[in-house]
Amino acid sequence: MSRAVLEAILNAMHVWLNGHEKEQLYHExxxxxxxxxxxxxxxxxxxxxxDPYNRQEIEQFIKAWLQWRRKHRKEEAIIGxx
Length: 82
Hints:
The chain has four helices and no strands. By secondary structure, the chain is mainly alpha-helical. It is globular and about 40 Å long.
């Protein structure tokens, strides 16, 4: 269910990722916000998204993660060309 919440967040931000990228982002997101091992990760993530401050923090984290991912992909492409 937590992945459904992440999917809703990504849709609201107009971000589309493949399954592997979503899983990687999900694990890094819940680790960053200290939600790993929460009794109800799904509900905690959903409540965090509904709070304006936390929503902004989540959006900033996702945007930074996307920038890192783009840079990482570009480096992979350069290495693959050599």
